[in-house]
From TrEMBL:
CC annotations in GO: chromatin
UniProt domain 6-phosphogluconate dehydrogenase NADP-binding: residue ranges: 3-144
Protein name: Oxidoreductase
Family under the similarity heading: Belongs to the HIBADH-related family.
Length: 278
């Protein structure tokens, strides 16, 4: 028996694809094919697995604190977005009440759940991950990242950092094109395959960072990148586009150059971000 708490956009998609037996939502909502509980107490009564997809950490506590003393021996799968520390705190809180904890981070939008490209990261209790694989596999590719309950959230946040900065960069470029009356739709059609091709470079950056070999062959130097960013900023100014997306990138590069690393690879930005000049 599985209970789903939260029937927002994502919770509803998970409950639908997951074949929920019992559902509950703060604001009562119909859910054909499942028992709709009137209260959280009623929703979790007798259930083995509780799947929570609420808004944030506060909402998880709002919903579960009043009933947690009766959940000894159950499993909580929390798919609500939390930071790594929040996930670890939730795992400790659950353990303190005899509840097995599995954390999940959804790398998809609701329409993707159960379809191609849908992926969910998990961490926490390994036995719970294995025991519930049939359910987890229905939502998308299930990847277990280890028993540190915060791992799924960490990788989620790290990946979303790449996504949001990419979106901001795209919108900056769109503003440059639009300033001359260009179509943003047309620009997107050119930008998407270019960015996809550029992602091939991630593996090279990664091995450079892992080996700290910023002086190896074939790397674009920080000095070269600085010149390129200066040109991008000049072009942005010509187009009247706010430089606030680009300026921090150039500042990171400049700081590494000022520290004497101009001839080394651009992946050294990693050192600036990590707070070290190894
Ligand atoms: P929605 O805003 O659609 O739904 C939020 C849900 O949380 C609703 O069921 C809402 O209940 C409930 N809720 C909010 N606050 C409380 C509270 N204090 N007590 C009880 N219930 C509360 O969000 P989503 O469904 O889209 O997202 C849910 C989670 O999934 C979030 O953590 C989100 O980050 C994560 N996620 C979402 C993705 C997406 O693309 N949508 C992608 C990846 C992760 P009510 O209906 O009563 O307001």
């Amino acid at each position: 028996m599985t209970t789903f708490l939260g029937l927002g956009e994502m919770g509803r998609a998970l409950a639908t694809v997951g074949g929920a037996a019992t559902v509950w939502n703060r604001t009562p909502k119909a859910f054909p094919g499942a028992a709709v509980a009137a209260t959280v107490e009623e929703a979790v009564a007798g259930t083995g697995l509780i799947v929570a997809c609420l808004f944030d950490l506060t909402s998880v506590h709002d919903v579960l604190d009043p009933v947690v003393d009766g959940l000894d021996g159950r499993t909580l799968l929390n798919l609500t977005t939390t930071t790594p520390r929040e996930s670890r705190d939730l795992a400790a809180w659950a353990a303190g009440h005899g509840v097995t904890y599995l954390d999940g981070a959804i790398m998809a939008v609701p329409e993707m759940i159960g379809g191609p490209g849908s992926a969910v990261l998990y961490s926490g209790d390994a036995a719970a991950f294995e025991a519930h694989r049939p359910l987890l596999d229905r939502w998308g590719t299930a990847t277990f990242l280890g028993t540190d309950a915060g791992a799924a959230a960490l990788y989620d946040m790290a990946m979303l950092t790449g996504m949001y900065t990419m979106f901001a960069g795209f919108l900056h470029g769109a503003a440059m094109v639009a300033a001359d009356g260009g179509s943003v739709t047309g620009f997107a059609a050119m930008q998407a395959p270019f960015l996809a091709a550029m992602t091939n470079g991630l593996a090279g950056f990664a091995s450079t960072v892992d080996t700290r070999d910023y002086g190896g062959p074939g790397q674009q130097s920080l000095a070269f990148t600085d010149t390129a960013l200066a040109a991008l900023l000049a072009a942005s100014a010509e187009q009247g586009v706010d430089p606030r997306v680009l300026t921090p990138v150039r500042e990171l590069v400049r700081r590494q150059i000022d520290a004497g690393f101009g001839a080394q690879g651009t992946a050294r930005i990693f050192e600036e971000l990590s707070g070290g000049n190894r």
